[in-house]
């Protein structure tokens, strides 16, 4: 009798694919594909996390300057209800002049909170101004003598398109609250698809990396500077200069105390060149965020809110800063305590490349209302929750 040949499978070692069943073959085939895809994704992600944008020098020329006694002429006064729930009445241009809440001379511009002792039961008077000119890109120099601070205050110097928030993005160059001793918070707020989880070159401390407005209670993606970057410590030596560069490669913020300002900024006849300034305080590279798609049509906004979603929150007002009573009770009746609640500026300057300033010249016509003419009846309706909310500290 002839021996029956053993089944082929039994004769072959396990690693010989000729002995595999169809199912095994398919499983192994799928496994190989998955492994290859994973390897490619890993390589791309690895490259992305080590990749960094090209911030090569741009040729900047001065395109606009805000200074002197006409400082406020280039801004509209916002008079509608505060979208961030502040205990505040934002006043129009003529009321602001009357109460000296905005004041400009040949050498400086001041914005302050009303310090009158009257119990301001419907909100303390303050100002919020929006530049008529909008911007797509540029190098913004803010020469600041005094930053506002004190219980109940929520000051900010920021850029956004109030009519298209968050679609057109928000860049908070300076933001603080209450006693302002925790350092300046620099933050981006965007729609989805903008993250700061790649390589960065900055001296500040990053907080969240997702810039999406609906993530983390609209905390945005932030970077916090040291204590000397805001408040009493920053003001002590006559303030200094903040520079914010907005370009396709990314957004960077630098800060210098008065006696450390680089020559290419203090020398009026030279062109500022960020490539010589060293590491930024905050760096928001374009690696995982299409900057030009997320940031467009931005106005410069300066305001001092009172209480509201950030400064009035118990964890800041009471727990962190140990301020008295509740924020609104205290802010209503203690006007004399708002004497440090003011911004003082020497000037703002906007530098752009020749092509960018040409492009924004056409956008300049977008400003419709003129300073001094705003009233609550003609003001645009407030935008939904303005993204100033911030997980500071
Ligand atoms: C960065 O861009 C500049 C100007 O386009 C170019 O000259 C330079 O070679 C680029 N550097 C790198 C590392 O790609
Ligand atoms: C920068 O632009 C100005 C004109 O706006 C020009 O005179 C100058 O040569 C340019 N500099 C460089 C380095 O390209
Ligand atoms: C208005 O404020 C400025 C800046 O603080 C100050 O110098 C000026 O004296 C004030 N004017 C009045 C009338 O109080
Ligand atoms: C200012 O800059 C100009 C042009 O770059 C230069 O000629 C001049 O020497 C500079 N002045 C000082 C005081 O550095
Ligand atoms: C740009 O912003 C201005 C002021 O907020 C607004 O009136 C205008 O409609 C905006 N333009 C675009 C194209 O979004
Ligand atoms: C201010 O007004 C509120 C509400 O009317 C009242 O509760 C509070 O006691 C007043 N504060 C002062 C200091 O008058
Ligand atoms: C309010 O002002 C008074 C008088 O200057 C001061 O003693 C007090 O500490 C201030 N309170 C707060 C919370 O700033």
Automatic annotation (TrEMBL):
Residues 45-319 form the GH16 domain. Its main location: membrane. Residues 362-393 are annotated as: Disordered. CDD domains: GH16_fungal_Lam16A_glucanase. The keyword S-adenosyl-L-methionine does not apply. The keyword Lipoprotein applies. Residues 362-380 have a biased composition (Low complexity). Keywords: Carbohydrate metabolism, Cell membrane, Cellulose degradation, Glycoprotein, Glycosidase, GPI-anchor, Hydrolase, Lipoprotein, Membrane, Polysaccharide degradation, Transmembrane, Transmembrane helix. The chain crosses the membrane at residues 20-44. GO terms for biological process: cellulose catabolic process. It is found in: Cell membrane. Belongs to the glycosyl hydrolase 16 family. One of its GO terms (cellular component) is plasma membrane. This is endo-1,3(4)-beta-glucanase. InterPro entries: Beta-glucanase-like, ConA-like_dom_sf, Glycosyl_Hydrlase_16.
């Amino acid at each position: 009798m002839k021996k029956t040949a053993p089944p082929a499978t039994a004769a072959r070692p396990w690693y010989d694919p000729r002995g595999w069943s169809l199912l095994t073959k398919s499983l192994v085939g799928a496994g190989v594909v998955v492994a290859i895809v994973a390897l490619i994704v890993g390589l791309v992600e690895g490259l992305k996390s080590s990749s960094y944008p090209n911030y090569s020098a741009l040729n900047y020329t001065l395109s606009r300057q805000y200074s002197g006694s006409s400082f406020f002429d280039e801004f509209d006064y916002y008079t509608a209800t505060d979208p961030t729930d502040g205990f505040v009445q934002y006043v129009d241009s003529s009321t602001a002049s009357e109460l000296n809440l905005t004041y400009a001379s040949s050498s400086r511009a001041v914005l302050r909170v009303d310090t009158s002792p009257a119990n301001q039961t419907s909100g303390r008077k303050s100002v919020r101004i929006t530049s008529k000119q909008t911007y797509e890109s540029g190098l913004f120099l803010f020469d600041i003598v005094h930053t506002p601070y004190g219980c109940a205050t929520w000051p900010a110097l920021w850029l956004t398109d109030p009519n298209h928030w968050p679609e057109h993005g928000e860049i908070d160059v300076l933001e603080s609250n209450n006693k302002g001793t925790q350092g300046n918070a620099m933050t981006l707020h965007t729609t989805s698809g903008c993250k700061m989880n790649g390589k960065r070159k900055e001296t500040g401390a990053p907080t969240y990396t997702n810039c999406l407005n609906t993530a983390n209670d609209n905390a945005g993606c932030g970077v916090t500077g040291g204590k000397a970057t805001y408040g009493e410590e920053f003001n002590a030596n006559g303030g200094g200069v903040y520079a914010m560069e907005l370009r396709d490669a990314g957004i960077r913020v630098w800060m210098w105390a008065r006696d450390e300002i680089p020559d290419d900024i203090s020398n009026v006849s030279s062109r500022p060149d960020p490539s010589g300034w060293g590491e930024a305080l905050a760096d928001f590279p374009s690696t995982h965020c299409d900057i030009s798609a997320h940031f467009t049509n931005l106005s410069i906004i300066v305001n001092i809110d009172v209480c509201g979603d950030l400064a009035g929150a118990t964890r800041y007002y009471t727990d962190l800063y140990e301020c008295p009573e509740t924020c609104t009770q205290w802010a209503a009746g203690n006007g004399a305590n708002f004497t440090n609640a003011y911004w003082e500026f020497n000037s703002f300057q906007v530098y752009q490349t020749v092509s960018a300033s040409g492009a924004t010249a056409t956008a300049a016509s977008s400003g419709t209302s003129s300073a001094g003419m705003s009233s609550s009846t003609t003001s645009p309706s407030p935008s939904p929750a303005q993204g100033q909310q911030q997980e500071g500290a």
